[in-house]
Amino acid sequence: MQREYDMHVHTSWSDGSMPVESVVEDAAHCGLAGIAVTDHDSMEMVRRAQQAAQPLGLTVIPGVELSSIDPDTGRKVHLLVYAPVYPEALEPHCSLLARRRRQAGEEMIGLVCARYPIRKEQILAQAAQSGTIYRVHIMRALMELGWTDSIYGSLYSELFGKNGSCRRGVEYPDVYRTARAARESGGAVILAHPGVYQSFAVGRCLAQQGLIDGLELRYPRRKPEEIPLHDELVSEYRLLTTGGTDFHGWYTAHPWPIGRCTTTEEELQRLLGRCGAAKETERRVDK
Prior knowledge:
Elements: E1 4-9, H1 20-29, E2 34-37, H2 46-53, E3 59-69, E4 76-82, H3 91-115, H4 120-126, H5 135-144, H6 154-160, H7 175-184, E5 188-191, H8 200-208, E6 214-218, H9 227-237, E7 240-243, E8 263-264, H10 265-274, H11 277-286
Parallel strand pairs: 1-2, 2-3, 5-6, 6-7
Antiparallel strand pairs: 1-8, 3-4, 4-5
């Protein structure tokens, strides 16, 4: 039987709907061999996931999804980092994003509370399991009060869409600076869902500079017409490949259960074989 791993999973510590223990139980029940917990800009839930997974025989690969921006296009770029040998190298990035998200979240809460009969405490209660504040927490509070029946519907677009009345953006670090920090961590660095933010051009630049090890080849939002763009990058730069669902529980616009997109055992072993390799090479050169 093929052992499969979902390498892109979020918990309620970031913008997922399920606590980490529930995510682990769900993954084991679905027959997965393992998962990577990849919350946005935080590895806080990795140890809890590993503790919950041990009696279930589920493997948990430490991971994180780093948020950044392409300075050439202004588009978001997400980098998945797996099994960092020196996770402390990621701490400045993660702490910075936690502060900026909370600041943006506080501002959005103030704007929403001025428009709707909702209290700040009701929104913060929805974010109680999270390390910061996300828009899904505001939407969940509005759902509880009957103002909408979905997270990502017309009200979300009105409030937080591109020109939303209550939208406040987060300032993300430069992708090249972020990728260098990821490299410093000694983890394997993967370009996440390149079709979602049209990250193919910046992915090429990152690959040319040796700042990524691979790309996420299989994910639910990949469009059929973009498959050749993925394959071209993989072939030209001999990149590793992974698969992941980008699981968020029911905090999503589409139903994507855990295990929808997966990574094979062979792919995982190649990935783990890269962890620490680039950093150790740098250390030998420095000596």
